[in-house]
Amino acid sequence: MKKRDLLAGLFLLVLMAGATLLWLAPGGGRAVPAVTLPTLEGGTLDLEGHQGRPLVVTFWASDCSGCLEEIPHLNALQREYGQRGLEVIGIAMHYDPPAEVARTAERRGIGYTVALDRRGEAAEAFGNVQLTPTTFLISPGGRIVYQKMGPPDWERVQGRLEDWLAGRA
User: Fold this and answer.
1) Spans of all domains in the chain
2) What pTM was estimated for this model as a whole?
3) What is the CATH number that goes with domain 31-165?
4) Which letter does DSSP use for residue 46 in this model?
């Protein structure tokens, strides 16, 4: 095989791989999983039903100090961007007793939706989340564009939200 044919084949392979990635993930990463969970308020959260608006989804536990430190940041995001379309969602891990989740939400003044992942299906659907906090930023198009274990880069999150909610992205 000639060197030129090998390079042409390699170029074609790279081109096809790039086109496949664009087709699989237009406008960001993978699609938000189709998950339906009960909320602390007694309702039902359907993540697929949030298309067209940005989401911040964080997996947390009531005994996780890093998770508790995030609550004021998440409350601030909900206050600042909620009326412009953002929804912040905290998903309590399957091992966290619902009564303790409710006590923590009340004591800490959580001002965003809290859902209960009673069987761990949401954590599994989001890529087998096991460590808390793990936070996801989801575009209005329903694509996961940022994922972070531990404290997120809040400036980066706010920058993306500003772009989306101002119609710049």
Assistant:
1) 1-28, 31-165
2) 0.82
3) 3.40.30.10
4) E
